Amino acid sequence: MSAFWGWLGSVDRAAFGLINGAWTHPSLDAMMPVLTDIHKVLWFKFGVAPAALAVWLYFGRQRALRALVVAVLAVGVCDLLAYRVIKPWAGRSRPEYADIGARILTSQGGRLGFPSNHAANAGAAASVLSVAYPGASIVFWSGAGLVAYSRVYCGAHYPFDVLAGLALGGLLSWPWAALMLGGGSGGSKKKRR
Q1: Residue 92, Cα to own-chain centre: how many angstroms?
Q2: CB-facing half-sphere around the CA of 40: CA atoms within 13 A
């Protein structure tokens, strides 16, 4: 079994080298740090996000509010589980501490990197929103995938860290969202007349 983990680690480091080192471009070097830390960007935090949330809640009404509450709960649970339970248990350091020549384009959240909290949170949100709005699943999961990719591109995580984070967020949140939101019907099974 240790041979498998050794092989997986070498594949992970090789994929990291490609994404973080070989497949780079100056325009991506400018864009990916913004994408990976969009929650810290002032124009997004105090402009775009509140406006988008207000429009969504206004037009989506009760369905949007229910999806928002479930998404916030799912992200909170996944974030807590990844940060407080899995990261200390796994004890895997970020690429910055592995002497592999990682390009670091964003601030790190701490020494431990497995699983990626950004990816877990994005996976949880994508999962809940996909249950609430199944027709837009590709948009939600594409966004989560971009956030996960940006974490590797910026040198914060290995690819396996973000894949595990996406899986954790998606798999933990989907059944809960399906139960609480009724599988995309907004939670109501009543026929409308």
Answers
A1: 18
A2: 9
- pTM as predicted: 0.87
Reply yes or no on domain 2-181 having CATH 1.20.1600.10.
no
**pLDDT block averages, 10 residues each, the chain of length 193:** 80 94 94 93 93 93 92 96 95 89 86 94 96 95 97 95 97 91 56 45
Cα separations in angstroms, 165 against 50, 110, 168: 26, 16, 5
**CA 165/CA 33 separation, integer angstroms:** 19
Q: Are 123 and 147 in contact, with CB atoms under 8 Å apart?
A: no
Taking the domains of the chain in order of start, what are their residue ranges?
2-181
Measured CA to CA, the distance from residue 121 to residue 147 in angstroms comes to: 10
The residue assigned the tokens 């994005």 is: 122
